[in-house]
Amino acid sequence: MSYFLNLVFAGLAVGAIYGMLAMGYAIIYKVSRVVNFAQGEIMMLIGYISYSVALRTDASAPLVMLSVIAGAIGVGLLIERFIVRPMLGQPVFSLVMMTIALAVMIRAVVGLIWGLDPYRFPGSATGAPIELFGVYMQPIQLFLLAVYVALCVGVWAFLRFNIVGIAMRATATDSTVSLLMGVSVSRLYRVAWIISALIAGIAGVLFANIYHIGPDLAHVGIRAFPAAILGGLDSVLGSALGGLIIGVVENLAGGYIASAYKEIAGFVVILVILMIRPYGLFGQKDIERV
């Protein structure tokens, strides 16, 4: 039983990373109906920026956090200004292809600047594991789960009570009507990309503190994509919960079957779920009147 519980807890820790990235997928999709396939690469880029700051500031936590915020704002604004805005009015497929090209470009830039070797994040949090009912927990994993919960609550409150968040929900319902009512859709796109990049950056720094930082960090974004599909791409909190489910399923598959099955477990889950609920567990069913 303790083996099972340890697998579940470790899966929740990984799933929290997936859930954060899935929230980023969902926020952008909710506003623009575009799937950002560069989410993992954005996480990697901001993680490397924070890594460089940590090296030069003796891993000062406030400065590392400021670098995440500044990096997210810079990356989000650049993407919105030079990729999203020129593509407004074009088919969604074209913008999706642009995000794939962006992912390739970011990988190349990271390789040129930081190289292809993995690094240990400076000042990585370490400590004696905490044992509870036979489950061994690292303090950094508990901190990760706390940050995940805080982000979920913060994003929910933002979308529910903030005027910009309410405008984002309105735009997701009908962008044309929102535009006619005076809502600046381009501004909302900008805010969505910044928030998505910020969440990805936080996830990247936490992942790097637990494991390492390297070019393979981008692959976490692909493994988080099933979480967004499972929860529903138009449901931000549903996507976050989908991350926990995918993380636990992957870990159980790796623990009880074989580690190689961790890579495909999440995709198997969404194949099964989508046959039952094509719009995800918490997504809204689109109704078209003819």
UniProtKB/TrEMBL annotation:
What's in the keyword line of the UniProt record? Answer: Amino-acid transport, Cell membrane, Membrane, Transmembrane, Transmembrane helix, Transport
The family database entries (InterPro entries) matched by this protein are listed as:
ABC_transp_permease, BCAA_transport_permease
Write down the superkingdom of origin. Answer: Bacteria
The compartments listed are: Cell membrane
Q: Which Pfam families does the entry link to?
A: BPD_transp_2
Query: Listed GO molecular functions?
Result: transmembrane transporter activity
> Which residue spans traverse the membrane?
6-27, 59-79, 91-116, 136-159, 191-212, 224-249, 264-282
Q: Name one GO biological process term.
A: amino acid transport
**GO terms for CC?**
plasma membrane
In the bilayer, the protein is annotated as: Multi-pass membrane protein
Identify its protein family: Belongs to the binding-protein-dependent transport system permease family. LivHM subfamily.
In Swiss-Prot or TrEMBL terms, this protein is called Branched-chain amino acid ABC transporter permease
